[in-house]
Amino acid sequence: MKNVLATISYNGRGFNGFQRQPDKRTVQGEIERTLSYMLGKRTYIHGAGRTDKGVHALGQRATFTLPIDKNLETFRRSFNRVLPPDIVVLSLEEVEEGFDARHSSCGKIYKYVFSWGDKDPLQEGLRTELGVREFDLDAFKEALSYFEGTHDFSNYTSKPEDNMDFIRTIEKIDVEADEEKRVATVTFKGNGFMTYMIRFMMGTAFHAARGKIDPKSVPELIDKKPRTIVPYKAKADGLYLVKVLYEGIE
Predict the structure, then answer these.
(1) What's the pLDDT score for residue 43?
(2) Interatomic CA distance for residues 204 and 217, integer angstroms
(3) Dihedral of CA 84/186/244/191: which sign?
(4) In the predicted model, is pLDDT for residue 73 greater than 90?
(5) Are 107 and 192 in contact (CB under 8 A)?
(6) In whole angstroms, what is the distance from residue 237 CA to residue 199 CA?
(7) What is the pLDDT of residues 40-63, one digit of tens each?
(8) What is the predicted pLDDT for the residue at 68?
(9) Which residues pair with 149 in a beta bridge?
């Protein structure tokens, strides 16, 4: 048997998230259904992480086993012909036994795309349309800057408990904005992101940009005890898992 690492892209609009769920359409469910059909037996995958309902992926990763006689590129092309049109397998590569898409990862990169100008119907579901005219880009950037570094992010996730005590490190947050078109992309690179974590951070920054909170209050929101989950959550539209990072693997 071959232990295979798949790189997968999908449009999240038609899915109830990545993780398999009974009686709901999910990315994992569709991939496993297709694999099981192609291999003639029930086959499971192990994803690098879960994306929420409506969240997209440019480079989700998953591991699974294949019979040793399968040519990976031939199988990938056949795989894509059977998969629904909103999922594509970009690559398949053999990895060592024991390699796991989730537990072998050392980090992830996400991006969040949004507009604070006129709505574009062709971007529906692909970016968040704020539909506002007043937007302080400097306040937005300042609010986001406080999330960089190592913090206890328990106030920025809905997870009830965490085996890492909610400690995560965000290595870098980049903001690329076109002020004339009023669109921007925020890129997050970190060692891990918990449920709704990016959406809570973006929601907080959006509130700062609209003058509803002072960006300098963000450190207090992060550190507030006892645990108080912030009430600001941005939409799933516009959130993309860009890449799952591994040592020695592109």
Answers:
(1) 96
(2) 10
(3) negative
(4) yes
(5) yes
(6) 10
(7) 999 999 999 999 999 999 999 999
(8) 84
(9) 170
State residue 221 phi and psi, 5-degree precision. -65, -40
pTM reported for the whole predicted model: 0.96
Residue 114, helix vs strand vs coil = strand
- From residue 148, how far is each of 41, 59, 143, 209, 243 by CA, in Å? 45, 23, 10, 18, 19
% of the chain residues with pLDDT over 90: 96
Query: Considering just the CA atoms, what is the radius of gyration of the chain in Å?
Result: 19
Amino acid at position 29, single letter: G
Phi, psi of 175 (to 5 degrees): -120, 120
Q: Pick the closest to residue 235 from 68, 7, 12 (CA basis).
A: 12
The helix (run of H) or strand (run of E) holding residue 139 is helix 137-145
Number of Cβ atoms within 10 Å of the Cβ of 27: 29
Tell me the C-alpha distance between 71 and 56, whole Å. 28
Q: Which residues are marked as active site?
A: 52
184: pLDDT confidence band, cut at 50, 70 and 90? very high
Q: Which of 43, 18, 21, 48 is nearest to 33 (CA)?
A: 43
CA 236 to chain centre: 10
Residue 133 has pLDDT above 90, yes or no: no
Backbone angles phi, psi at 20, to 5 degrees: -55, 135
What mean pLDDT, rounded, does the chain reach? 97
